[in-house]
């Protein structure tokens, strides 16, 4: 790594209880690819953690394993004291996919209602909660629209409302805004920060954007590819009080440089002039 | 100086008019154009037959076919009713069988691997070649015909249902797993809606095929008598050299086919119209 200021070691929120505990987790796919090697990480209640890295560094793989959607080859993961994927009620976790992943045959209301419906709630009982989730993301007037009638950003909002409707403790987001335009993206970034603060969430946010990770997180986990692994764990204090003015401060640019340098050290060197 | 006043009602209608008018015109054209073109072809046919003095036992004029249709109305209607019964029953059974087996295929790869070859063999062997055997083995002619028509209509439903049930978006599948959906919830709220576009496409095909199956099977059976379908009328007229009657029966077969097509298309629009790409009209 080229000489930069020494990286601050992530201390996390030392007082808060550990929510996620990953110990030496590896994932090897059937074709022999090592997607992740020896990942150990503790995430405490109330943290906003970004997994940052190039394609193939295993950041999405790690997220899927925490949610229980993907098995791992060795190591252990516990979420809130339970092995990953074996939480007594799946509703503790909200998951936002890279695409909005809405059911095209159902209205926005029905899409957001789905997690509650799967828990056995009737439409009447759930109505207030669905409406609350919809107004949380500014879609109160679009309950009756179909996904195809919405813009990309609105679809993503519906997707976030669906993840929030069960009032989860943990929100997992897998490159949620990668396909959106810059303006929509920064607006949604602010909204996610707002949700994180107002709901006491713990968020894990997978991204390949340095700026996004620095703007959002209280902690950036920098990962490298081939094999996927964690190379840096950087604490960025003060996330809970940032405003959009943060983007204009020298602290922000310093942090961006810091994280950027950390990320650069992980990249394969490619000589384009050769 | 002149003062021009704008009547708000006129102004508004002028703003609204072009789009609505265009839409109305489009809708009218969609009904009128097919009718006009069919009438034109019939007129040309009538004229050519009259002008060239083509004998009616070669090509009858449309007017003669219409007359025959009216004269033989009751016997033709009886036959049509028989064909309709055969077609709808075979289509119904094809839907039930195809959907059930398709679900089984989607649930278990093993079952699919074991049974799929038989389905393919049944499908690729021309029904006209299997029909004589079925007619030998099954003593009740109606059942034999029903089996023939069913075989033809069954396959598209089976294969599309199986593919459709597997085509659910993988992220949505993950989401259902995340929220610990029961197998029934997954089927009801994810797999079936995802399979619907595939199923509706199959239904449109199977509807036409069941009619073809019913007619072909009856041709092979070559049955005569009271309780027979339109294919028998066509055969019978051919033996007796009653070409106008043959055309009249043929006309009814086409009408049936068009009717089935219209109903299945309407159903498809009803089920998918509000969300699926294939049924959504876009402004250009």
From TrEMBL, chain A:
Asked if the keyword Acetylation belongs to this entry, the reply reads: no
Gene3D superfamilies listed in its UniProt record: P-loop containing nucleotide triphosphate hydrolases (3.40.50.300)
UniProt keyword annotations, A-Z: ATP-binding, Nucleotide-binding, Transport
Superkingdom of origin: Bacteria
| GO terms of molecular function | ATP binding; ATP hydrolysis activity
SUPFAM superfamilies on file? P-loop containing nucleoside triphosphate hydrolases (SSF52540)
Coiled-coil ranges (or none)? none
The segment(s) forming the ABC transporter domain are 20-250
The record's similarity note reads:
Belongs to the ABC transporter superfamily.
Name the record gives this protein: NitT/TauT family transport system ATP-binding protein
Q: What organism is the protein native to?
A: Shinella granuli
TrEMBL record, chain B:
Q: How does it sit in the membrane?
A: Multi-pass membrane protein
One Gene Ontology biological process: transmembrane transport
State its location(s).
Cell membrane
Presence of the UniProt keyword Transport in the record = yes
Please report the stretch or stretches of sequence annotated as the ABC transmembrane type-1 domain.
80-264
**Transmembrane intervals:** 31-51, 86-107, 114-136, 142-165, 195-217, 246-272
- Principal location listed in the UniProt entry: membrane
A Pfam family that this protein carries is BPD_transp_1
Q: Which CDD domains match?
A: TM_PBP2
Q: Which UniProt keywords apply?
A: Cell membrane, Membrane, Transmembrane, Transmembrane helix, Transport
**Record-stated family:** Belongs to the binding-protein-dependent transport system permease family.
Which protein, by its recorded name, is this?
NitT/TauT family transport system permease protein
């Amino acid at each position: 790594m080229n000489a930069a200021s020494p990286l601050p070691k992530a201390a996390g929120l030392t007082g808060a209880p550990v929510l996620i505990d990953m110990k030496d987790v590896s994932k090897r796919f059937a074709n022999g690819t090592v997607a992740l090697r020896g990942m150990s990480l503790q995430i405490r209640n109330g943290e906003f953690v970004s997994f940052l890295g190039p394609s193939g560094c295993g950041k999405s793989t790690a997220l899927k394993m925490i949610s229980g959607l993907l098995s791992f080859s060795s190591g252990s993961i516990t979420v809130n004291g339970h092995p990953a994927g074996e939480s007594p009620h799946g509703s503790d976790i909200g998951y936002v996919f890279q695409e909005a992943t809405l059911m095209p045959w159902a209205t926005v209301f029905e899409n957001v209602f789905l997690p509650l419906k799967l828990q056995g709630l009737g439409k009447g009982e759930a109505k207030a909660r669905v409406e609350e989730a919809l107004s949380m993301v500014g879609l109160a007037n679009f309950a009756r629209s179909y996904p195809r009638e919405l813009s990309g950003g609105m679809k993503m909002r519906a997707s976030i409302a669906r993840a929030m409707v069960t009032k989860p403790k943990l929100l997992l987001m897998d490159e949620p805004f990668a396909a959106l335009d810059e303006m929509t993206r920064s607006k949604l970034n602010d909204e996610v920060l707002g949700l994180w603060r107002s709901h006491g969430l713990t968020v894990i946010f997978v991204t390949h954007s340095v700026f996004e990770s620095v703007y959002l997180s209280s902690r950036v986990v920098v990962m490298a590819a081939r094999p996927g692994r964690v190379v840096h764990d950087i604490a960025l204090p003060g996330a809970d009080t940032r405003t959009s003015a943060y983007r204009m401060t020298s602290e922000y640019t310093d942090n961006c440089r810091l994280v950027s340098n950390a990320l650069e050290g992980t990249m394969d060197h490619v000589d384009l002039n050769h | 100086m002149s003062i021009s006043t704008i009547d708000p009602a006129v102004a508004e209608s002028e703003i609204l008019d072009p789009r609505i008018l265009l839409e109305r015109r489009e809708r009218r054209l969609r009904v009128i154009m097919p009718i006009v073109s069919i009438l034109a072809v019939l007129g040309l046919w009538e004229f050519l037959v009259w002008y060239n003095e083509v004998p009616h036992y070669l090509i009858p004029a449309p007017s003669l076919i219409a007359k025959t249709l009216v004269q033989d109305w009751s016997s033709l209607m009886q036959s049509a009713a028989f064909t309709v019964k055969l077609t709808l029953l075979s289509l119904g059974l094809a839907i039930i069988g195809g959907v059930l087996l398709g679900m089984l295929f989607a649930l278990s790869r093993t079952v699919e691997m074991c049974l799929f070859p038989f389905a393919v063999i049944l499908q690729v062997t021309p029904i006209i070649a299997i029909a004589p055997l079925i007619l030998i083995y099954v003593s009740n002619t109606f059942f034999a015909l029903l089996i023939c028509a069913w075989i033809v209509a069954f396959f598209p439903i089976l294969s599309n249902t199986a593919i459709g049930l597997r085509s659910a978006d993988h992220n949505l599948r993950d989401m259902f797993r995340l929220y610990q959906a029961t197998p029934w919830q997954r089927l009801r709220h994810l797999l079936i809606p995802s399979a619907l576009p595939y199923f509706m496409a199959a239904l449109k095909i199977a509807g036409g095929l069941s009619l073809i199956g019913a007619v072909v099977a009856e041709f092979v059976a070559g049955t005569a008598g009271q309780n027979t379908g339109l294919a028998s009328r066509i055969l019978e007229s051919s033996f007796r050299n009653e070409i106008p009657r043959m055309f009249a029966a043929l006309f009814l077969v086409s009408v049936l086919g068009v009717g089935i097509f219209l109903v299945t298309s309407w159903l498809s629009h009803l089920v998918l119209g509000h969300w699926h790409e294939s049924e959504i009209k876009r402004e250009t």
